[in-house]
Amino acid sequence: MNRRSLFSAFLLTILPRPSHAGLIENIFSKGKSWDVIVVGAGAAGLSAAVEAADNGASVLLLESQPEIGGNTLISGGFYASVDKKRQEKQGITDSVELHVQQTYELGGRLGDPKLVRTMVTEAQESLEWLEKLGMHFQPRVFELYGAHWPRAHIPVLPLGQGYIRTLADACVKRRVELKVKSEVREVLTKDNKVIGVGAYCGNEYKQYYARRGVVLAAGSFAANPDLIQKISPKLKGLTTNNAPGSNGLAMLAAEKVGAKLVNLEFIQCLPGCPPGKKYRVRFHNDVSHFIFVNKNGERFIREDSPRDEFRDAVLSLPEKYGFIIIDDEGFRRAGILVQKEAVKAIEGGEAWKGETLKELADKMGVPADNLIRTVEDYNEGVRLGKDRLGKKIHSLTLPIAHPPFWACYAGMTVHYTEGGIAIDEKTRVLNKNNQPVAGLYAAGTITGNVHGKNRLGANGLADAIVFGRIAGRQAAKN
Asked: Where in the sequence is the signal peptide annotated (predicted)?
């Protein structure tokens, strides 16, 4: 089945068209309208709402869930940006050109080069914008798993709480109007221009109208197992770490009015809760602190491999999961929330702690001699600065040497859908002829031509903030 027919069939099953939809006459006299409507209250949508308001627009923000925050709120919260102020203090050399190159090359050269450069070059200014709004970051950066360079900024508040608190406060101060439990399933048009959206508020269908533009920032489709399975059958049955609102309905609604969808087949997974298990423990966040082993207690892929290669390697294992090993130094650096995750998983029998590697291996059910030999071999590579599997060893890399030792299950969990709506560098939604759909903008994980086949770790929030801000400005000026 080709992509067009696949999505047409899917739409028919989940997006019944209300009998009164499309009968839009004298729309602005039928009810209140706004200059800009933003769909989705995660980092991208909140950033768009703030910028639209700062550019003189009245703004309505629609969120499908009972609470705002989306995936941002439950994310690791790490933000990728070149930042000489922080990096030079740690002896880290970095540049915009290197960040652009890594993002584009590791994405398989499938991202739009203009969008890649826009995201990277504006990431630091957007970081400073967040700080001016009241967001706080730690003074150090690190190499997040899948980021391929130490440029991930760490928020002071855990996970994505700092972003949502900061941006929500900014929206309140700018009198942005918010409606929750409002799931957008239709994009309204008149005379080939987007003029609003149709949303379900429980069982009630409502239409909201925008005088200048609509910004779609409703997230990915990573929490839609039916759609994931249709696009990538090999991922059938995997868990997801996404919020329930990441269902792709707004993306599919945009396709119905001509938006081009691209790169849908590229679906990123992270180490997480295997099918049938209950606990996800994020020992993998800092690539400098962990190793990954199989059921035989042996490493089988370098831990800083591109995320798509890592996914395929894990799914190729007979069990379709492995184990992450860290020592107590890595555990203490992981942060309080990860430590709490580990304690709960240990209580549930899905993570383990041992004063020796043998004790740990026995609890895990892997051959102790193999695990001890694996750790010794890895530590020797760290000492010599040359890893046998090719993992990059630098001054931030830690050996697995300080007891007690910790381990957890790590299967693949659906994390990010690189594909989605095609946009240009002004965040205008493009149709199949690469022409803008008048009045329609998009930002964040709902878009599909920024990262290519593989998104670098911590680029997601940079993408959301940078393009969310651009979309808000552009929609307000339309």
From this structure: 1-21
